Amino acid sequence: MNNLGCVRSNTNSTLQAVIVENHHEALPYIYRAIGRKRLPFDGLTVVHFDSHPDLLIPFDLLADDVFHKDRLFSSVDIASWLMPAVYAGHISTVVWVKPPWANQFEDCSTSFYVGKHSKSGHIRVSSTDTYYISDLLYAPEEELINKKLFHLHVTTMDPWRNKTSTVNQPTSEVENLSKVSTDSKGLCQHFVDENHQDNLSDNYKKSSNTSNDYKDQDEKESNSSVQQVIKKQKLDCQGKTSQIEIVSNRVFSSQSEGSFAQVAIDSKTICADDSSLKHATTNADIQQIGAILNESKGFLLDIDLDFFSTANPFRDLFTAEQYATIKKLYKFPSNVHPVQEWDESTKCREEQLDTLKKALRCAIAGEKTANDVLSLEMSALVLEIKEHKDKQLEDFTFDLIHDAGMSCDDIGELPHHISTETEIKDLTKCMENTLSLLPYPLMITVARSSWDDYCPKYQVENIQKLTVDVLRTVYKNKLQIQLDFEET
């Protein structure tokens, strides 16, 4: 039984952990574990440490193909490997634990349906978040059959919250930190002690602004934060946590005696300084995750190493001006809320993407494009890239223009934050503290994400070592690790 009063399952058996390179390569291992009854067939919860939610769906994947493993495994990618398993009924809940620079969804608890679209036969969702509408994955609930209810919980692990670090600060505040946030929600805030702050602030400005050209261009585009992101939650979701009372150096829930929610946590288990007791909501977040896990049939711990340090690889493929043009062409309005606008927005988005794809194909082939604004701008962009092709990477293909556009089509771009060594260690310590208070997982999957440059190649080995050290510390001799990637 752990500090939260929860029985830690799997304590008398081997805990399998597999490390793969690309994140979707974990899916066959999960299915194999289900077949061997090491994971439950349904009702599985995934605790997902990642800078990206990975909750998209392969656009052309037929719902029935989910039950044909070869077709399924060849269809998913790093951004779309979880949701097909939701439709198949295996996964019912995802707890996305994200770093502070990832804002595709705000901290929330929400539920929606994942089902087979009665008209197209593809997998679609009832969520009206722009994360799904902009990728044409939304369908009204009444048009979904064989639907599964999916629960999403999002929480931020932020060791530097309420500190004078520039992590996750807007551009205007990076150079002038006149205010300190008093928001105490988030995992492991205040873990970082005071003497880390100068290094965090200075190094963050160096690592997150790797190109002044990008910074200047972004400031022209909008007054958004330094860490632009691909998508952001627009629904008014509120995660419910119990009220917390502080008694000496222990924290107790206001819920009834004997329930899982009763907490007895030494503050130093969570944070490095006693001042963290003033901000006990970090314990409420851990408590909420634990309560979710208690309701599930078991949980899978999933870690992407880009959780600790992440890059936006598209920044290296295009100039700042080219990337700004791509963002402009693919921009999707993020203020779609009224019910009557959802279907209309989907239709407009479909027309926009169809126009862009046709213009891209014509421009690549050197054919004349249509005379509309989108087509003409796409043609000009392709022509410019062709003229500078010798400066592009050798493996560059023009399909990457569309891929880049679909990654920054909402309010920003993919998360980009190259962490300092101090920041990486702070996050690994927070993860260790969190995992030590949760039940044992039934299985662990880890993705390196370095070949596609989401986790910087020069950092991945160190991050992997620190992560494995955390897993060995928490799970001790129960852990058996399998490596399934080619070492560089």
In the predicted model, the low-confidence regions spanning at least 5 consecutive residues are 3-8, 169-185, 189-281
Gyration radius over CA: 23 Å
Helix count from the secondary structure assignment:
15
For the termini, the CA-CA separation is 41 Å
> Largest sheet at a glance?
9 strands, mixed
Oligomer: single chain
β-strand amount = 5-15%
Order of helices and strands: EHEHHEEEHEHHHEEHHEHHHHHEHE
Structural class by secondary-structure content: alpha/beta
Percentage of residues in helical conformation: 25-40%
Can you walk me through this structure?
This protein has 15 helices and eleven strands. The strands form two sheets. A nine-stranded mixed beta sheet has the order 5-4-6-3-2-9-10-1-11, with helices on both faces. It is of the alpha/beta class.
Furnish the topology, listing elements before pairings.
Elements: E1 15-20, H1 27-35, E2 44-49, H2 69-75, H3 83-87, E3 91-98, E4 108-117, E5 123-125, H4 130-133, E6 144-156, H5 171-174, H6 197-208, H7 212-221, E7 244-247, E8 250-253, H8 267-270, H9 281-295, E9 299-304, H10 320-330, H11 339-365, H12 373-387, H13 399-407, H14 421-436, E10 443-447, H15 457-475, E11 479-484
Parallel strand pairs: 1-10, 1-11, 2-3, 2-9, 3-6, 9-10
Antiparallel strand pairs: 4-5, 4-6, 7-8
From the structure above, extract its key features.
single chain, 488 residues, alpha/beta, 9-stranded mixed sheet, two-stranded antiparallel sheet, 15 helices, 34% helix, globular, disordered N terminus
Q: Briefly, what is this?
A:
With 488 residues, this protein is an alpha/beta fold.
